[in-house]
Amino acid sequence: EATVYRSQELQTIAPAGELREVPKTLTWKAVSGAATYRVAVTEVDHTEVWRGESSDTLMTMPASVLAKMKAGKPFLWTVSALDPQGVVLASSQAQRFVVVPEKSRGD
User: Fold this and answer.
1) What is the pTM of this model?
2) Is the peptide bond before 62 cis (omega within 30 degrees of 0)?
């Protein structure tokens, strides 16, 4: 009989919140039984910026994506864990991050 993981939530680690510099990697916690993780980065209006798949709990974004991440512009990212058959085991909430312009930080 199949085990159903519908209620399982995947925990994102980073990036989150206000950042001093453009994040090069996305990281999250492992999900038991996951074969691959599907990642999507979007603008706040849900326009897709980039998507990728990884068998690890870390993914490096390509330079072409990093170039779009201007200071002050917020982004969202989500990750889903898939089993070997491609069935989604768990998904994260959308995690928001923004690179804060140098002059607006309260250092």
Assistant:
1) 0.86
2) no
